[in-house]
Amino acid sequence: MVNPGGPGASGKDYAYNAESILNPDILSNYDIVGFDPRGVGDSAPIHCLNDAETDASYAADSKPDNPAELVALEKQGREYAAKCLAKTKFLDHYGTVNSARDMDILRLALGDKKLNFLGKSYGTYLGTLYASLFPSNVGRMVLDGAVDPSISAVQQSISQAVGFDKALDSFITDCFTRSDCPLEKQSSKDVSRHELAVKQIIGIFHQAAVSPLLDKIDNSDATKKKFLTGQHARMATESLVVLGTASALYDNESGWPQLRTAIQESVAGYGATFLALGDEYSQRNTQGRYANNETDAGFVIDCLDWPENRTVSQITKDAKVFTTKAPVFGPYLAYGSLACKNFASKSDTAKLISMSRTIDTNPVVIIGTTRDPATPYTWAEGLHSKIHNSRLISLSADGHTGQGRGSTCVDSAVDSYYLSGKLPIADLQCAL
């Protein structure tokens, strides 16, 4: 059984692409089964916003700089939640813990005594909950890009912000070695060129807040006027530029070259590549259609799993911590859970995930990538300490997750485990 992450990504679609995920020896020994978790894809899908509303949600200001902007962000969250509640019944039952229970029903339906599983990113969280609920039913389980369920939602968000800042540092270091690097390479007596590059990128964000970047199609005053009056289809707002930047940092092979292009375009006031990067993340096509309901499902499932119990004033206070620890991405992630205050979660996921106890189950392989922005390496270490009889494979690399990315060290260990059931003798240190 496989799950690619999310929450909100389709396991069914992921299984259809099994040949690009797993090696031939695994495919010849296993049937690859994917399912859409409840609320996702074809499984009683959660619906909240239409395509135009989703566009507006992604483009809206996510970093309130004054009380009026905070009020607007609160209003946006209330309206989003209200549409979810109005369009989808029984939302209380969509938490991840129930999807983990569904996995055991599926195991029974398949006639398997044990559940063999590959979970990536959020899929590791789904697998961990399954192991906590049904430890004796765990077969051969690989958790890649691990989520540590023992830390709070605030701690998770802060560590993610730090992870993206570190990934941006890696991008900048690499960029300086490239002939097409658009970052300023000069330094001063008091400021290093790396620090100046960080300031340049933050400056792009701030400039987009004042004057959103245009698509390359039209840079006329008439087009700008249409955008300001709500008549123009899209421009790269501050939030969309930040989203595009973060999207690029997931994949150093394809994302980093696009980010160099996006930064170069921004110098001329264009945002086409930032928009394309953001669209890749949100799975929006050039006609403005979203491929699935991942945005809505992810929003609701996250809110059910991690209820927001802080006051607005506490969230605002904590935002200063985000900014201190992660000056680039921290301010944009600090208010990410504000809209969750509009859900009165009855999901018991929150009770289960706040686990201080360890999980005793069959051998499990955990993979952590050292410079992973979305699931920081410390999460893999944390999960490793929670699951007895687990092995940690550490991949020294940039980008998100580790299996199937070209590391023979990682892939051979995973394949051997799936084929023989034997864990690596000790924790492994691997590289690309």
UniProtKB/TrEMBL annotation:
UniProt similarity note: Belongs to the peptidase S33 family.
Sequence intervals crossing the membrane: none
Protein name: Unannotated protein
GO terms of molecular function: hydrolase activity
PANTHER family reported for this sequence: 2-SUCCINYL-6-HYDROXY-2,4-CYCLOHEXADIENE-1-CARBOXYLATE SYNTHASE, TRIPEPTIDYL AMINOPEPTIDASE
Keyword annotations of the record: Hydrolase, Signal
UniProt organism field: freshwater metagenome
Residue span, AB hydrolase-1 domain: 2-403
Keyword Aminoacyl-tRNA synthetase in record: no
